[in-house]
Each structure stands twice: as C-alpha cells, then as structure tokens.
Amino acid sequence: MFHRRISRAAAPAAALAAVLALGACGSDGGTEDAGPAGGGGATTAESLRIGIMSEEGNLTPHTYATGFPGLNLTMLSYDSLMQVDEHGQPQPWLAETVEGSADGLTYTVGLADGVSWHDGEPLTAEDVAFSVGYYQAGPPGRFATALGNVTQAVAQDGSTVVLTLAAPDPSFELRTLADVPILPEHVWSAVADPDVAPFDESTNVGSGPYRLVESEPGVSYSFEANPEYFRGEPKVDELVVVQFADEAGATAALRSGEIDTMMRSISPEQIEVLRGTGTLDVVEAPEYTTTLLVFNTAVPPFDQAEFRRAVGLAVDRQRLVDDVFLGAAVVGNAGWVHPDSPWYDDSVETVHDPDEAAGLLDGLGLTDSDDDGVRELDGAPLQFELLVASNNALRMRLAELIGEQLGEVGIGVTVSSVEMQTLDDAVWPGYDVAQGRNYELAMWGWSSASQADIGQMASLVATDPVLGNLNITGYSDPDTDALAAQLDTELDPAAREGIADQLQQRIAEETPFVSLLHPNGAYGYNPSVFGDWVPITGTGPMTKLSFIPDEGQP
C-alpha cells in the first residue's frame, strides 16, 4: 500500500557530508571555520564570484537555457514544494507536510508558515494552484512535462493545496514536488507569453534565498541575498556570476583571482596544477552527470539495433576514462544506470569487443569492398558527422578518440565542432522531442537529475513524446515502451526494481545510445572566501543548499 505522510519535523536532520573551501585572492572574505571534511574556510562571505561557460539567457523558470548551471542559478531565486537533501532524497521545503493517498492519486500539501515573495507579498496555496495551471497552459518544457500527470490543483484554504493525479507516479515527490518552481500569481498572471517575458523589477520576483538584481545574458548575473528568507538569512550576501567563452578562460580567471570558483568541474589535468599553486585546492567527488554518444535512429543504419550495438562494442569506454579524463571518471554502463546508483543492475555487461562489432557489421552486409578502410552502405561510404560543442574541450577529445575507435571497425567519422546552440537545435530543437531532430551522431550530456530519478530512464527511451520527453534519439521499440510505462507507474518498490532491471537489460541489448562515462566532480577553490558548502549526493555542491544556514537545511 502507498500511503505516505512526511513533515519537516519528521525529515532527517541535515548533516554535512563534506565541506569545500571556496574563494580567490582579492575577494571579501568571511568568518573562518575548520570544517571536519578537511580544508575548512569561511562560513560567511560578502561576495562570491562564480564562473560559467554557457549562455543561460533570462533566468526565469521559463527561459533558463541548461539544466546545469542554468536551472541551478534560476533556483537560487525560486523554491519548490520539496527539496532534495544532501543524500538526494526529497524533503518538505515550501511544504510543511506532504501526504500521499493510498492509491497514489492524491497529494495534500500543507504550506510552511511565514513564506513571502521577494516583494513582500505572502506565498499562498493559490500561488501553488496557479503555478500548476500556468505551466500546463504554457509552452512545452521541463515543468509542464513534470506536471503533465496532474489533473487538478485546488487550494482548499490559504495554506493547503490538493493535487490530483491521472495515474500513480512513484517519482512524483522527486520529479515534480522537488523540482517545479512555484510562481507568484500576482506577477505571472499578467504575463501572456512567459518565453518572451523580459527581465525587470516585476518578473524577477521569487521566494528563494536570492533575488536576481542584474542580468546581462552572455556577460554576467548578480544575485542579492534575501534577508527575510524563511529558511534563514543566506550565508553569502552577494553572488556574481560571470560568463567565460570556455573552460580555459574560466580556469585562468580562477588562478588569477578574478573569480572564486566555477560552475563546472575542472579538467582532469588541472587538478594537480591548481593544487600546486599553494593557494588553490580541489575537492573531488563522484557525480551522476552522464556523457553519451547519441544517434539519430531515423537515419539508416542507426535504425537497426545490431548496428547501434556494434558502435557500442567498438567504443573503448575505459580508454576514454584513462586517456581523456586521466582516470577521474566512472565508466558508463551499457544499461544506462550509474554504477553507484542503488538502482544499478550489476548483471548488465558493458563490453568492448571490436571483433564482435566487426562481425555484426559484416552480418548487416556492411563491407569494405574497395579496401579503403571504410565500409559501404548502399554503395556509398559508411561515413557520419559527429557533432560536438565547441566550448567543451573534453568532449572534443572524446569525439576524436571515438572517431578513431569507430574507424578501426570501418565506420568513418568526421568530427564537427559547433556552437552549443547549433548543437541543441540539431539534437533537441526547441527542447521538444516532438519536433524531431537533424543530426547523425552527437556528443551529449545529461545532468545528474537524469540519474537521480530512476523514472527518467523511461523518459530517455519511450516513444510517446510525453513520457519520452528526453528521447532525443527518436528511438522506438514496443517492448521498451511497455517496460517504460510500467516503470513510470509502479508504486511497489520491489516490483519497480525488477522493472528497472529489465529496462536496463533492454537498453543494453537495443543500444539507443552509448553511455560513455560519468565525470567525477572536481571543483577548484581558494579557502579564503567561502568554505561552508553542502554537496548533494550525485549532484555536487553547486546548489542553493550551500548558501542556506545549517538550521535551514532540509
């Protein structure tokens, strides 16, 4: 039976899993503390300067550009009903209580007292009900999808809202309640098209620990602490986020003291370089981010599982980890799930076997008739373009090495370096899989959220664009669809684990994509500015939890 009632009082007390000291020369420092996880550093700071390497647009829940760092930056200003704790488990946040019915179709949410928007207006159940309807009626996107199973949101009174679901969703707390930002009705009810809403003093109203006060997309963002935040006054007064063209520029700025940290792991070769400066250090931790090789399965012969499996067998994942990441990554699993995840099925085999790959290609009639080293398809060379973002040096190196490995079995690859937006438009136009795709091969990455919620595995492979909203390969298979639908609705934990195992096996057999590796998080810092960070399992420290005082942790 599914019947869950949790409250803030019942949630486990937060404990620091690790402490990162973060900063740079020239910044205003704060109070010092020797943290138990080593290093230590300031527990408060006047200003923290953070480097990013991607254009994140207007930071609203409707217009942020990427899951990381864009959504992480956006959620500095907004809150969800629940919040994942340091262990990655959803806990009450804006909600004081969350109660699920026995059939999994109704959630009753009681809001915390005393929560206000940045403009001083109270946050109420009406705002929650409005947010559900506004996302659902608006443009397609992450939050509209997360709320797609909600058929009704009713404010019973000022602090209680009842959500009704069309079907049971075992991931509802993690996928929806702990993810969807709540919007102020008095602000967004006047905005007809949220995709074109400008940044100004009206649209930058949230409930989060910070308010975005300056926004110049492509250049910088400035956040000001919310001293009335219901979880306690933030530990850092000001966050200044500066955009750089690439990792090299941001790393140089970190070394020179222009910034205090970066919202991206540093390159493996930089780890010892930064540690050798005498002022900077690096904290490393496994993360659930995933780097993939993706196919357009509408393009022959990627429409054949045997060919896709041959590609997977030809790729030497361990060599990618060793040669490109210098060992600072976890080898990807043919069944998708991170090996550290509690959902990982260790019976799934991840194999590098170029001879078997060649045999599969021979069996498909893809032979090299002219002995030029490249097989032929319908008389033409078996040659494909591999797209990769130009601002990601590591993925560029991965792409080149993968091209060599595929070349060894007779598959020709031309690596094309393109702007990130060009890549997005080709692989995931409009961030809507229903719009199709226009590529052959691409280097891609999914943020840690795709692994933290096992239900997202269904989103990667389901044919239905509603359930399969992350199916950027266009993969379609009836058996996979059946397992994906079961994974998405099964409430019994043991039964769901069995379904997850079956789906991992199916993904390994069908190879709708090649999960290459999971980079370890490696964050450079100087312990003179701020060191009281709170990492989340599989996600790392670059979230708002790091800026919320201990007594306000979930």
Automatic annotation (TrEMBL):
Keyword Protease in record: no
Signal peptide: 1-23
Pfam families xrefs: SBP_bac_5
Alphabetical keyword list: Signal
InterPro entries from the UniProt entry: Peptide/Ni-bd, SBP_5, SBP_5_dom
Gene Ontology biological process terms from the UniProt entry: peptide transport
PROSITE patterns per UniProt: PROKAR_LIPOPROTEIN
GO cellular component: ATP-binding cassette (ABC) transporter complex; periplasmic space
Solute-binding protein family domain span: 89-460
Keyword flag Signal: yes
GO MF: peptide transmembrane transporter activity
Source superkingdom: Bacteria
PANTHER family: PERIPLASMIC BINDING COMPONENT OF ABC TRANSPORTER
Protein name: Peptide/nickel transport system substrate-binding protein
